[in-house]
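Service request form, structural biology core

Requester: graduate student, group of Dr. S.
Request type: structure prediction, single chain
Budget code: on file
Notes: please return the result as structure tokens.

Sequence provided:
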Amino acid sequence: MLEKLGVGAIFFGAMLINAITGFAGNLLAMPGTIQLIGMTDAKVVSTIVGLFSCFIIAMMGIKNVIWHEVTKITLFMIPGIAIGFYLFYTLDLSFLLYIYGTVIVLIALKSFFTRQGLYKMSLPLLVFVMLCAGLMQGLFVSGGAFVVVYAVHTFKNKEEFRSTLSVLWVVLNTILLIQEGIAGEITPQNSLLSFYVLIPSLLGVYFGNRLHHKISGKGFLLLSNILLLISGIVCFFKV
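Core staff response, request fulfilled:
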């Protein structure tokens, strides 16, 4: 029961933030959830909860979605996702979690000291960033840190940013859910836990959406970078 309450509290906060920014939900939820219920169950719960929560967020801003960016990002991420699926079953996942945390912290620190602005990312850099994003999405349902590297220089405002990324997570979480079903990772236990966790998660989405409309564009970017830093640091802590 304490584990369920703990996971519910984590996802309430994570999906509140996800409704504000459009990307940080699983980044924040996965590290603590992994410590409470294990890697596989955390991955399944994050996929299911993320799918439903992001669908609702996407529907609230559907007119702001940049559809060709959803298609482009998805296609570039798919090879990395496939590699992530393979590594998930072959490597030491605790070791990978430390690597994951290190990479996110480095990205966050770079963002703090880099002037943000719109520019066209070169094709080699885009391929590398999206390969890494797909890899982390396949491993930890958390490719958002790398996608944000691209998104902050691509989308003109916070509405495009949030709505487009929310649709992207719906597409990617659907792919992950199919893979988890084929792999036999979805069980009655983690499915029921996902249902329980959806309740506080959707409450978080409600409050997060209200806050989204109150935050400025500059505050939006600052919050995004702070969340990246926090989520990376959390990876190094044991419960």
